[in-house]
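Minutes, project check-in

Agenda point 3 was the complex the collaborators sent over. CS summarized: three entities, 687 residues total, and the question is how they sit relative to each other. Sequences were read into the notes so everyone works from the same version.
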Amino acid sequence: MFKQLTIVSGKGGTGKTTVTAMFSVLASKKGVVIADGDVDAANLHILLKPEVIEEIPFYGSKKAIIDPDLCVSCGLCYELCRFDAVQKKENGEYHIDELKCEGCALCYNACPAEAIEMQIVESGKIFVSNTKYGVMVHAMLNPGEESSGKLVSEVRERAKKIAEMKNAKVLLLDGSPGIGCPVIASLTGADLALVITEPTLSGLRDMQRVLDLTEHFEIGSVVAINKCDLNMDMTGKIRDFCSRNGIEVVGEIPYDPELPALISQLKIPFECGASEHIRAMWDTIKEKLDV
Amino acid sequence: MKIAASTFKGGIDDIVAEHFGRAESFTIVDVDGSEIQTVEVLKNSAANQTSGAGVAASQLIVNKDADVVLTGSVGPKALAVLQAAGVRIYRASGLKVGDAVKKYLGGELEEITAPTAPKRGLGRFKG
Amino acid sequence: MQIAIASGKGGTGKTTLAVNLAYFNGIDLFDLDVEEPNDYLFFKNAKEVESEVVSRKVPVVDQSKCDYCGKCRDVCEYNAIVVLKDETMIFPELCHSCGACSYFCPQEAISEVDRPIGKIISIKSEINLAYGVLEVGEASPVPLIRAVKRKIAGNAIIDAPPGTSCPMVESIRDADFVVLVAEPTPFSLHDLKLAVKVIDRLDLKFGAVINKHGLPFDGVEKFCRQEKIPVLGRIPFSTEIAERYSKGELLFEYRDIFKEIYDGVMELV
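CS then shared the predicted structure for the full assembly.
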């Protein structure tokens, strides 16, 4: 049975993806399946360089479409739609804005002329790939599409099935920034959440909100402070907050200019000073997960 | 009495699945006394719902007039529905359906009265 | 004139740009990153003028009128309704507030009540700032983003959330110009390309600002040149700037850059 570690951040740009990539390498000895849950702005593949072996279309929510030949221009859909998705054109015809439509089907059910159809739209793709370190499941959401947790859930579910089949010991999930549906979906089933933050006011604040979220869903969490020497005062504040709330800080990684330099060469940054801290962090987390 | 077990492919010899809401199927047995009269396999249409899979699955079970559910973990919303409908839930994941039914009739199974996380994790999804 | 600041990738400097651009050009600021609002941190001495709770509608069933026909459950796309023999149950967390159930109930047994999704806080400093704070556990930020947008009147700088999906789209779609913030890293380049796709689809005017200029990756500049994307300014990579940001301080020594960027936008519009 595998353990699931979800890496989240609240604030973007704190180093989630870099840490996930490094953990993927470190965990590969134990058998790891990697999932990129940041489907809105997936970056993990840039470092892990997956070879796609399976591509699966993703069907998000449905979209309503008006058949202009059947439409009698009564305007009922326009009146009823709560998402401003129905547009009234100058010639009196009605049209549904695909980007605004939430697929609730109220117009479809209400239309007296039965002129509306609900269409399942392909809003992205899921990929199952091989990497040097383990199987990776990732996805791409078409730009502008609704980023519900559904795609993240599907990525997660596939990764879980593969982990079970391959007898992997670890499932690593790279989550997205924020606290909304996609983040919630990436936290589902996690044995542990690692929250990566940075010593800035925004970093502290956003970390607090994502910890509210993990608490709300009762998921045990630990924290890592990246670029910790950027502002030792703020790092201290983050440490204090964590200790007051019984949350363990499992890593404090100093800023190392070698790290972005290696990333810019698309290398997983093991050859820099900061990487020692990340290795040590993995050792601590390994123990907590009991793998 | 009607007993519904969360299963994979389904049937008396299938294993009871851990997750209620997204189980592949439900195996519904009609029991008279201690004899199994009929076995029905119902595909779980709720399994790949975006959200509310547990709620939709419990609606299916209620529609089938099941009295008892045998499963592993049930989320809070699905549990609320089943309890409101007077359905009782027992932990039987990992057992063969036939054995699970026998154990239930023998009073050997643990009743589930609170929402449960999948056995292995601290994670508990309330959404 | 509404100028939206977006990026695709998180952490590139949207907030840094939005806050300083608004402050040094005297324009009202709207923080639409309602999941993780940060702009207010830069206005420590501001006075809170207003705090407004924002709600969405969720259904409530009058059980005395309900005959358990199940029509509400049949029209709900989100499994938010379950109908038993003698009770209809609603799950507001799953509800998308579309109104279908109450509309179709043959017994008129369903009414709607407010469910708080977050709040809008308005503060007053040298400029005005309004920002949304999403309730933890609420699935979608979009209704709250819409509510904050309704407060926009006159010139505005909009700080959009990261990403290229629904929340970002909702935040920028009504802007007159979008400034995309990128940093010289492969991750940022990847997400910049996605952001450009969205903006093209929305048919909006846009330009780029390169933050942390000096990092060793030239892909972003190359891409902007290739695609003829106007680069309106470059904010240098400096530990001093990083430190100021970490303390929530405005970049007074760099005010000229922010004035230039604004002038650049105005010229292009």
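Noted in discussion: Chain A has two domains: 3-49+131-289, 61-122.
Follow-up: revisit at the next meeting once the mutant set is ready.
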